[in-house]
Design goal:
With 216 residues, the protein is α+β, with helices and mostly antiparallel strands. It is 36% helix and 21% strand. The strands form two sheets. It has a five-stranded antiparallel beta sheet with strand order 3-2-1-5-6, with helices on one face. It is elongated, with a radius of gyration of 32 Å. The termini are far apart.
Length: 216
């Protein structure tokens, strides 16, 4: 065999061997160590991402709960004006769940025909305005409000007069305009996060969230 032909044969032989080795390395796949490294990386990413995702989810549920109360107050406001009757919004705990309803017939209990919203078990109404102590927020202050009295909170009953104006409903009396505005506070036991619903003396409502330093 000519020398040139032998060289070509050896060259093609080496190429074929190298190709075979590469093919075997490809077929071999991942080693156990490589798989462990990949799983460890995924575990670290999940450990960071999942708690953040859950925190966002819980805050979304808390905001949604406050938004439902805000909508309920507006529904009560419109209904009171249409019915030309005093219409309270009341809170109750039923089966461990925080609920709020429009007491359309003003009998101090929920009837099946009356609008009602229920929160997840972890979200409840506060007993009153927070004080800023023990990890709680400070009470919300409505900037520019001219009220001289203490704002009403969860310890009060809000109702709407026949004109659709909010009042602090006590002893069957709905005196308007209200002495101050209303702020109803809610907290989530899973995160200790807070939300609130502001109802101004004119009857407008707004959802608020505590960001750890201020209400927004």
């Amino acid at each position: 065999m000519p020398l040139k032909t032998k060289r070509l044969s050896r060259m093609f032989g080496r190429r074929q061997m190298n190709a075979t080795r590469r093919h075997k390395r490809i077929e071999r796949g991942f080693t156990l160590l490589e798989l462990l490294v990949v799983l460890t990386i995924f575990g670290v990413i999940a450990g960071i991402a999942i708690p953040q995702f859950m925190h966002v989810l819980y805050n979304s549920q808390l905001r949604s709960a406050a938004a439902e109360i805000s909508d309920l107050t507006q529904q009560a406001r419109i209904g009171a004006a249409r019915a030309n009757a005093i219409t309270p919004v009341r809170f109750q705990l039923t089966g461990g769940l925080q609920q709020a309803y429009i007491d359309q017939n003003n009998n101090s209990s929920w009837d099946a025909t009356e609008p009602l919203v229920a929160f997840p078990s972890s979200i409840v109404g506060a007993s009153g305005a927070p004080t800023g102590s023990g990890g709680t927020p400070t009470a919300y202050t409505l900037v520019g409000d001219s009220s001289t009295g203490t704002p009403f909170d969860n310890s009060n009953v809000i109702a709407y007069s026949a004109r659709g104006l909010p009042c602090n409903y006590t002893s069957g009396t709905c005196a308007t305009p209200a002495a101050s505005y209303f702020v109803f506070y809610f907290t989530d036991s899973r995160t200790n996060a807070w939300s609130a619903v502001l109802v101004t003396k004119s009857g407008r409502s707004k959802v608020l969230m505590w960001n750890g330093a201020a209400w927004q």
